[in-house]
Design a protein that fits this description.
The chain has 461 residues and is mostly beta strands. It contains four helices and 29 strands. The protein folds into three domains: 108 residues, no CATH class; 112 residues, Galactose-binding domain-like (Jelly Rolls); 110 residues, Jelly Rolls. Helix content is 14%, strand content 49%. β6 and β7 form a beta hairpin.
């Protein structure tokens, strides 16, 4: 009887362990809800393929892209890696050109022209920087070029320089222009002198027979003349190529207003979980300065602060100028909450946002005889990252040109089987440990029973 119980316990243990092992073996492809076909955009001989990830992939991909697998039509897995895309960009260094102011002439009633001679062997300038100690001004500027000081060519018309530092930290003293290299440059500044209202006023009192019978407050006018300390001609010289992260503009899934919290306007941005590093607020309102706060989360409950900054827009002439962009470290939240902190000021009109951020691409070795189409399966609920030696291979190969692939439409995986929620006590690991515990109990019981039998035997047996 004891031997039968022992064998039964052992068979039960093996059977339970076998069930647990069988449950951990997942049939091919059933964990992925979607897939995308990859087709080459050009037929070249590069052995390495590259496909930039897009919104549907970002929306389903894990933070470390671990729940993605690449297969050919024969269900053979193709190793790949996901990397941050970079690009080369020339650095243009502003360089002051050697020059000399030749003359200053008054034109009309209220304009002045400054003629500047560019020294020989200097590069072609693309900017005139007007140095001035004046504050609170807005001027129209025209720039001309000539080689003989008689025939002038217009390089820039009705550019604006301004200073609003008494209201907001907003100032511009540079005028950019394009054109060939000239020996002489002429800068014309309009509205050189302006009448401004003085902060002081004059009180005029009239008396009759020693008695005051009327008083008049007169506003005082000041003649504000623009002052020039110098004009610098600036060239931009390309020095070197800078490798930096490739920036991409992204679309949002939804943008809606959530009303007010106290006096603040709140908006919810729904994304496709792209790797964002900036959001530009779109508004047709002008002449405002607001503090803004950006938070993010994936469940619309546990919000985390992403950025806090200011946005502003001031109308200068007919051109609004300001800063409406929020910059922050890379995030891939599904939802963002934008809060406009109004204080006691009225609300501004917010029409939407324009996100931007980094770009990621997957690299893979293109099969010599590729069985088309290649398919990227993605979106599994939980998966560990695959371990490939592709990173070391690509580093050794030093590939610079890639065969570019593009994603096809999103397709549902007919083999997909959603994971069922199981009681953790019935999971494979706990079931296996329970079986071991049961075996220990049975063996202990058999041992105690055997000892009792031995003690019950008569002496001498």
């Amino acid at each position: 009887m004891s031997n039968k119980l022992f064998c039964a316990a052992l068979l039960s243990l093996l059977g339970i362990s076998g069930v647990a092992a069988t449950e951990n073996q997942t049939p091919w492809g059933v964990e992925f809800p979607e897939f995308r076909q990859l087709t080459p955009t050009v037929n070249d001989a590069s052995p390495v393929g590259l496909a930039e990830l897009d919104a549907p992939v970002y929306d389903r991909a894990a933070m470390n892209f671990s729940n993605m697998r690449l297969y050919d039509s024969a269900e053979m897995e193709i190793p790949f890696l996901v990397r941050l895309e970079t690009e080369k960009q020339l650095i243009f260094i502003p360089t002051e050109c050697r020059s000399k102011i030749e003359s200053l002439n008054k034109v009309g009633d209220n304009s002045y022209e400054v003629v500047i001679e560019l020294k020989d062997d200097e590069p072609t300038p693309v900017e005139a920087d007007i140095q001035t100690p004046s504050l609170d001004y807005a001027k129209k500027v025209n720039v001309y070029g000539s080689n003989d000081r008689r025939n002038w060519q217009m390089l820039k018309q009705d550019a604006e320089i301004f200073d609003y530092s008494s209201i907001i930290n907003l100032k511009n003293t540079a005028v950019t222009f394009t054109g060939s290299r000239f020996k002489y440059y002429k800068v014309r500044i309009d509205s050189f002198s302006e009448h401004k209202v003085s902060p002081y006023s004059e009180l005029v009192t009239q008396k009759r027979q020693g008695q005051e019978f009327s008083s008049t407050e007169k506003t005082m006018q000041l003649n504000d003349t623009f002052r020039i300390d110098g004009i610098r001609l600036i060239a931009r010289i390309s020095r070197q190529a800078l490798i930096q992260n490739k920036k991409v503009n992204y679309d949002v899934a939804d943008f809606k207003a959530d009303g007010k919290i106290n006096k603040d306007d709140v908006f919810t941005i729904t994304t496709f979980r792209q790797p964002l590093t900036e959001i530009t607020v779109l508004s047709d309102s002008v002449n405002f300065y607001r503090r803004v706060r950006l938070s993010g989360c994936d469940d619309q409950k546990n919000w985390r602060q992403v950025a806090e900054s200011t946005i502003c827009m001031v109308t200068i002439g007919n051109k609004p100028r300001g800063e409406m962009k929020l910059n922050f470290p890379e995030h891939r939240f599904k939802y963002y909450r934008l809060t406009i902190i109004n204080g006691d000021s009225p609300s501004i009109n917010i029409s939407g946002v324009k996100p931007g951020g980094n770009s990621y691409a997957m690299l893979f070795i293109v099969p010599k005889a590729p069985m088309q189409p290649l398919r990227l399966y993605y979106g599994a609920a939980a998966m560990s990252s695959p371990v490939y030696d592709l990173t070391a291979v690509l580093n050794k190969a030093n590939i610079e040109n890639y065969r570019r692939f593009m994603f096809g439409k999103v397709e549902s995986n007919p083999l997909y089987q959603p994971r069922k929620q199981k009681d953790p006590l019935l999971g494979g690991k706990y079931l296996f440990l329970g079986a071991i515990g049961l075996m220990v109990i049975i063996l202990g019981w058999l041992l105690v029973r055997g000892v009792k039998k031995i003690e019950s035997l008569p002496d001498g047996q």
